[in-house]
Design goal:
459 residues, 2-enoyl-CoA Hydratase, Chain A, domain 1, 3 domains, 12% strand
Amino acid sequence: MSNKIPNSILQAIHTKRWGITPEYLDVIIGVASRELKDIEAVLSSPAVKKGSGLLSTRSGVGIINIGGVIAPYMNIMTEISGGTTIEQLGLNFGEALRSKEIKAIVLNIDSPGGDICGIHEFSNMVYEARGQKPIVAYVGNLCASAAYWIASACDCIIADKTATLGSIGVVASWIDDSAWMEKEGIKEYKLVSSQTPNKQQDLNSDEGLNSLQAELDGLANIFIESVATHRERAAKYVESNFGKGGVLLAEQAIKVGMADELGSLESVIQGLQEGKSFIKKGVIDMAKEEKLVLEDEEKDEEKESKTKAEDEEEEKDKETNKKAESEEDDEKDKEGKKASTLETKMSGLLLSDAVLFNAIKELGVKEERERMFAINEIAKVYGDNELVKKAMFNEPKSAKDLSFELIKAERVALEAYTKDYQEDISMIAEIKRSEGVLQTGEAKLKAEVEDVKKGYNRN
């Protein structure tokens, strides 16, 4: 086979919607764009891939291998990957169903998925054949994306312990080669009919990307709903628990309901030959499952709302603190600028007129000495006074301003003293008045007692 892959294949890749692992899609693009040089190594496929789509029988069990990239029909991509076509699968699966010699069917899967074209149709074909014969999917290595879509349609899924399953979702890929074309002097012209503006979207625009995203989301919803129907699960449960686009190891896949039990290909074939019934495990009431999913979503929304409120409050506090710090910084900047301006002016004066600079300096020193002397004189009278201490160093003031503050403080203290004194005088007067009343009452009582005595003596 020639190692030259026509560039037109890139256009085919980028116009398809893939149900495939992103890593394997990168391999396909790498081969087609010649970035992966060792094409022969890529083409070296295990036996399951080389025999993909073919039907073989073993003592009444029909085995159909599904390996490599899945495509609607034979093309260069299936040649590159040693893949499987839906065309082959449909014909051989139909033959296995009709054959009287075949009592059960095994889909032996090792595939990263592929082009989603035809997958929905074939998976429905498998799903609708349930009950005619036992249909089991076996996964020895990888069952991803479109391959898992098919596997989910079987009666059950058996997997080796090292197998991985999932990658539910749809992916699209494209290359922006505009810079290369501009460098090469290539200009591409496209004209779309005015009646059909959406015929070719510009993926460099938000509108074009949104349109593609909506298409992929719609296809993914069909994928999820199909898997949910096949696995007898709620669609919301599948969306939340079946890997969210990632793959799960077999044991974890079994726990969440993506697969049913661990096993080997030989144990599956032998079990079917002996009439063993392979069925789904752990299927629960779909209404209950939907309710559980909704409860989880409500909890997540409540948690998100609470977190959002806390974040908003924290952001508000940050803004308040930031504003306060900004105002404080502005004040410091003003003071700093003022000091800086004064220093700049004094430096300029020193350079231009050193005599005047020294005279001003001497005058300042003299004024400061006189200020400190005057405040020390005040300190002799007031002693260890807080206002005097501040006026000296922390909040420098002239002796005159300090005197006004001290007088004001004394006046406040005197007013408080006068108020207390007046309250005390009122209290003393009240006590004296109470004593006078008491004395008058005592004298009156004594007189009454004397009157009683005199009357008693007369009798």
